[in-house]
Design a protein that fits this description.
Elements (H helix, E strand, L loop, with lengths): L11 H16 L6 E5 L14 E5 L8 H9 L10
Antiparallel strand pairs: 1-2
C-alpha cells in the first residue's frame, strides 16, 4: 500500500499553479482554454499532499490538434482523450 504524505500548507502552491497554467495556456496557442486550480492545494491554509491539481477544458474538443498535444508533451503533460 502506498503511503500518502501530507504537507503543511505552502503559500507557494498558488504561484506554482500560476506558473504551470501559463505554460499550459501557451501550449494552446490562440485556442481558448479554461484552467482551474482544484484540489486541496487550492484551499488557502489547508494541509495537503504537495501535488498541484489542475483541470483544463476547451469549448470544442475537436479543435485540440496534434500541435497542441505535442506542445503539452514537451512541457511534461500527457494528453488523454476523454470525449465524454
Amino acid at each position: 500500500m502506498e503511503q500518502v504524505m501530507i504537507s503543511s500548507y505552502n503559500a507557494e502552491w498558488k504561484q506554482d499553479y500560476e506558473h504551470e497554467q501559463k505554460k499550459i495556456r501557451y501550449s494552446f496557442e490562440s485556442l481558448p482554454v479554461f484552467i482551474e486550480h482544484i484540489g486541496s492545494t487550492a484551499v488557502p491554509g489547508m494541509d495537503s499532499k504537495p501535488t498541484i491539481d489542475m483541470m483544463a477544458g476547451v469549448e470544442e474538443l475537436s479543435l485540440v490538434n496534434e500541435t497542441i498535444i505535442q506542445r503539452l508533451d514537451e512541457i511534461g503533460y500527457e494528453y488523454v482523450h476523454k470525449p465524454e
